[in-house]
Amino acid sequence: MKIEKIETFTNRLIGFVRVTTDSGEKGWGQVSTYNADITCEVLHRQVAPHALGTNALDFGDTIELIGERECKFPGTYLRRATAGLDTALWDLKGKIEGKPVTSLIGGSPGPLRAYASSMRRDIAPEEEADRLCRLRDEKGFTAFKWRVGKECGRDVDQWPDRTETIVPYVSKALGDGVSKLVDGNSGFSPERAIEVGRMLEDNGISHFEEPCPYWEYAWTKQVTDALSIDVTGGEQDCEISAWKTIIGMRSVDVVQPDILYLGGLSRTLQVARMAAEVGLPCTPHSANHGLVTLCSMHLLRALPNAGKYLEYSIEGPYSQQWADELFVERPYDVVDGKVEVTNAPGWGIEVNPTFLQATTYAVTERD
Ligand SMILES: [Mg+2]
After folding, report:
1. pLDDT tens-digit map of 208-258
2. How far is the centre of ligand 1, averaged over its atoms, from the C-alpha of 231 (Å)?
3. Cα-to-centroid distance, 245 and ligand 1 (Å)
């Protein structure tokens, strides 16, 4: 069975990919979010030519070869685009075999604990605590992440003392018996990150994400070595060579690849296995309600070294207009703090035709 046609349906934020085989079977995937229109252009120009005509069911090596054929273009756009192809092929394989993707990679359908993940820094401690506590009480979440510092902030806070205020305030409001996580988004030098980390230790926070500029692996390792709590990261890292370095030097306690930044499920499985070999858990990054969270659910249900929970964005359609219209049936309902991987074949979703109609269409097919 060969790949015959690759279609994209995109706007600036989000782009879906449909792969069709020479026997007419179809699978749906997604390139990574934001500048998805540019990413789809890369998919047609630099990914599709290497994939058309290749085996649609045995594609691990095709995904690797794309990087080699395009070796002058390493980096995020090629991987984001490749992820669209890879995730569509996993969906196709699942549909042909009548199995959810998780079952194709050694997992099984079922529930998964989720953590409520805030994406905001423009929010005061009181308001953040209010909405997290509401989610605890209404949806049963038992784990929460909020933001400290400022993205790539060079030790300057979002506003003076926000970090020192929001950590104890939100932690106290949430109370005991829940897991508390914070994200620094590359905000701190090692010295400042260790200082913030001590405060986190004193306030019952168990996970300190991306404390230092993410490309400074040695800085992050300094923080990891100094603190007793988990230091985590890796969402941006999209090259396997980078992951070999991160895992080899143990710069983090928990690896957080993003399936769609990294180039798809196949490459994320490689990273998760590398982490498993040295005993590190994998908690994928999935910061929006496009396909990435669903892919992460299927992955987590299959990994022997799965982290404790799924990242579940709590930002509603008001900030991500597309979030609730993408799928005919929303796969992200939370009950008792858990989401559910169903036994529907592939990713188990149908892309909303109304959404597709409003996108820009492009196709590349075999001559
Ligand atoms: Mg993060």
Report:
1. 999 999 999 999 999 999 999 999 999 999 999 999 999 999 999 999 999
2. 11
3. 19
